[in-house]
Amino acid sequence: MHGGRQDEETGGAGGDLPRTVQRGLYFEELSTETVYDHRPGRTVTEADNTFFSTLTMNPQSLHLDAHFSAATEFGRPLVNSLFTLSTLVGLSVAQITQGTTVANLGFGAVEFPSPVFHGDTLYAETRVLDKRLSRSRPGNGVVRFEHRAHNQDGELVARAERTALILLRPQADA
């Protein structure tokens, strides 16, 4: 598949019809006056939590030991907070940054105000806090996002700011 045109190599359906490849938003399309709601949500399973925790070498009993967790104030295992953060940012990708991010520059103000448990469904939203043209990289802009995750009950479970280098719209598309 070259240039987003599947039919060039595969003779795919549609013949000469224009094709669209889903992408995120270019720098110019991102607005500080919009809240971007990301759907669908993502239901977290015990397998997700166990796999992520072991993959990342985090043997914390709060994540992996149901008997231990039952004796804590939570009464059950907690989902690994870095899984929550990764899922929060991941939920935003298709709508906001798919194919338009050059690089993540950093994360800040990461908070987990409420726990996430197996079976919770995470819903994410993103705001653009500010943006500016890159001084050192023509064709790119620097955008600071605020990502927020709520569970199925509307409870805020995660918040993070992320700064990213984002592509400007190509001149041919302008």
UniProtKB/TrEMBL annotation:
Q: Which Gene3D superfamilies match?
A: Hotdog Thioesterase
InterPro entries in UniProt: HotDog_dom_sf, MaoC-like_dom, MCH/BMMD
Name the Pfam families on file: MaoC_dehydratas
Show where the MaoC-like domain sits: 32-146
Name the family the entry cites.
Answer: Belongs to the enoyl-CoA hydratase/isomerase family.
Indicate what this protein is called per its UniProt record.
Answer: Acyl dehydratase
Q: Which organism is it from?
A: Murinocardiopsis flavida
> What is this organism's lineage?
Bacteria, Bacillati, Actinomycetota, Actinomycetes, Streptosporangiales
